[in-house]
Each structure stands twice: as C-alpha cells, then as structure tokens.
Amino acid sequence: MTKTYVNRAPQDTRGSWLTYVGLSLVLLFSAFPVYWMFVISTSTDEAVAQIPPSVLPGGEFWTNANEVFTLNEVFFAASLINSVIVSSVITLSTLFFCSLAGFAFAKLRFRGRNALLVVVVLTLTVPSQLGIVALYIVMGKLGWNGSLLAVIAPGLVSAFGVFYMRQFIAHAVPDELVESARIDGALNLRVYWNIVLPAIRPALAVLGLLTFVMAWNDFQWPLIQLNGTDFPTSMVALSDLASGNYVIYRRVLAGAFIATVPLIVLLLIGGRQIVRGIMEGAVKS
Question: Which domains does the chain have, with CATH numbers?
C-alpha cells in the first residue's frame, strides 16, 4: 500500500493591511500623551495658552529644564538620583527573593507548600492602601520614617513576583534536571544558581523591567514618607512642581518628560526581552 503525501503550501501568517492600520492607530494614541508632554515642555507660556494649541515642538526645552533643575523649592536632580536608588534596590531585591521563593514553591517539597502559596496569592487581592497606617507605624517603630529606607523596605519582595517566578520555573526547569543535579551532590542553592537562574533569564528580564517601572512611578507611599523632606523621589518632586496657586505647565511637563526619559530608554533597551519572556511563558504554559 503506497502512501500519498500532499504538499501543502505554508500558510501566510502576515496580517492584513487592516491589522497594520489598527496597530498604527493604537501606537499613535498610546504615544501621543508623551509627545504632547514634550511639545508643552518645549513651549513658552504664550504657546501653552494659545488656541488652537500648537502640535509642533518649540525651542524652549533647555530653558524650561534649567528652571526645573535650578528651582530652590524643588531639588529635582537629587530626586532623580533618589528614584534611581530606590528603583534599582527594589528591582534587584525583588529579582533575588522572588526567584528564590519561586524556586522553592516550584521544585522543593515541604509541608504546607500549597497552603503558603495560596496565602501569597491571596495577598494580591488586598489593596495596598489598607496597610498604609500599619506600615507607617512599623516604619516609625524602626525609626525609618522620612528616609529612603522606609520607601525601599516594603517593596523588597512582591507576591506577584513570587507567583510569576513559580509558574515560570515550574515549566522552564524539568524536574529530572534538578534531580540529576542533586544526585551529583549539588545543594539547593547550587541548583538555584547554576541551573535555575540561567533558565529563567527571560522571566527575570520581564519581572525586572516591570518592577523598575512600578517602583519609579510609585507616588503614594513616597509622598507619605518623603513629603516635606529636602530630597524626595521624582514623582513627589513633580507633585511639588505642580502645587501652588499658579501652575506653570511648561515647567511641570518639562520635569515630567525628564522623569519619563529613563523609562523610555529602559523599555527601548529591554522591550524585546519583555516580549520574549511573555511569549516563552505563554508557549510553555
């Protein structure tokens, strides 16, 4: 009996022109607020107030930026440095502790593992605003209120990060590979460092970028802790720029654009890693 093979033409997976038009419109509407912020930051007070508003950048960006950095009431340069410190420490700590906890939940067998994971996931349903008062009291007992330590400490680990890393490690690292390493005499930390970490680099990139952006944009808790201090974070400094009876929008949006540039650069550099990590997680699951 002979078998007949039918050569099928490969399917064209390219989208139609409607797909590209739709994606272009989404990109346009998503990027327009950033572009408009840049336009206002490069304009004068007269250009900001004119009707219809101008949609072309002006030539006053460096003047407006210089006002932001030299304003005595707001230490904007120091606030940017504080944001870099806070976001970097929180990101590195989250990557380490969440990947370590995710490894424990995914590959280690211990009593109460599933129940503890359920508790971790349930904490995602509790609004962070409910714990503000208790957290402030705890920071006061430690003597950290009004310092960067009080801003950093609550974000050193996240329940979302633990759950995300647990799910990724469970599918990305085979149990047989872990068991073979243990047979060779590797301890759990050696397995975590030499086997798990290299396998979850895409997930670490995704979690790191998301954590950095969230820490950079955090406003409520830094406002409670650092409002009135000389060196707040960038988001608190922007609120100080926008306070007062008369708001100079060109100056406020110049500061907002400057504070947004690091995030744009970070996303441009790591955007491919985000897509890769999300796609790998989707395929494995």
Answer: 17-284 (1.10.3720.10)
